[in-house]
Amino acid sequence: MMRPIAVSCGEPAGIGPEIAAGAWAALRDTVPILWIGDPAHLPEGTPWQAVASADQAKTAAATALPVLAQDFGAPRRPGTPDPAHAPHVIAAIEAAVRLVDSGDCAALCTAPIHKQALIDGAGFAYPGHTEFLAHLGGADRAVMMLASDALRVVPATIHIPLAEVPQALSARGLTDTILITHAALIRDFGIPAPRMAVAGLNPHAGEGGKIGREEIEMITPVLDALRAEGLDIAGPLSADTMFHGAARARYDVAIAMYHDQALIPIKTLAFDEGVNVTLGLPFIRTSPDHGTAFDIAGTGTANPASMIAALRMAARMAEARHGR
């Protein structure tokens, strides 16, 4: 059996504990996991077993959710984050990273965090989960991919106002995004010769400069330089014709210029099964493609499908990278 996937608990007031329990129930015979958090926060009736190591998790996973237990010192109140939990949420992430760094766990899967609670309770100084993981892993730059069986997308810019996107895009940044993505497709997805499609920024990819010049002045020169190095890249392409079935069959990943250009198509095609993958880290990290869902936390209606997909993808990536 493969090494377990380390699962950090995320924000206790959200649906993280519920989807972890649901994912374990669905995957216990195929993907062993090690959940790091306070077992008192798990849904009532969840079979769980405290373990002291990842090795113990492999044997325990068949009959109970293996838990590397932490005492958060306060109960979970679904829908209402408690800043007192913040240091423990951060410690769970750090513990999970240590487990994957040491090789005791095959990969990391993170449940959603609530940034404001981490700021209020622990002075969290990072823009988000991804940047914190890049810091812990010593990575200069991390890249966000959203992935499903139907589509993989990578936005070159992420959580910034649309008006700031043209200034945020740069030749160096776009080059790094494409190279990190290319390397990850080979190493972690087992695609020896990745085919990449790159969207333009403007409608119709600028239409020869009539609807914007970013394609002419920056995007095309970057793509030409990378093609000269042997990368298989199409683009810049008009984004409105990149995501129908026949177009998707021609590439392994789509590089988009901004958040919604990338996320609207994948959330349309695979809303419940999309997986957030962080590329460029020294370890494998996946996460469900949704937030804390405070509005349904504790109601028993949380759908674990994206967590299940994230764990399955982490396992496949670990097999591609490590062979187990």
Can you tell me about this structure?
With 324 residues, the protein is α/β, with parallel strands linked by helices. It has two domains: 1-142 and 273-324, Isopropylmalate Dehydrogenase (3-Layer(aba) Sandwich), CATH 3.40.718; 150-269, Isopropylmalate Dehydrogenase (3-Layer(aba) Sandwich), CATH 3.40.718.10. The protein contains eleven helices and twelve strands. It has helices at 16-27, 54-60, 86-101, 115-122, 129-137, 165-168, 171-189, 214-228, 245-248, 259-269, 305-322, and strands at 5-8, 33-37, 48-50, 65-69, 107-110, 143-147, 152-155, 195-199, 232-237, 253-256, 275-279, 285-288. It has a twelve-stranded mixed β-sheet, with helices on both faces. A hairpin with a 4-residue loop joins strand 6 and strand 7. Helix 7 (171-189) packs across helix 8 (214-228). The longest helix has 19 residues, at 171-189. The protein is globular and about 60 Å long. The mean pLDDT is 95. Keywords: Cobalt, Cytoplasm, Magnesium, Metal-binding, NAD, NADP, Oxidoreductase, Pyridoxine biosynthesis, Zinc. Pathway: Cofactor biosynthesis; pyridoxine 5'-phosphate biosynthesis; pyridoxine 5'-phosphate from D-erythrose 4-phosphate: step 4/5. It comes from Salibaculum griseiflavum. One of its GO terms (molecular function) is cobalt ion binding. InterPro entries: PdxA, PdxA_fam.
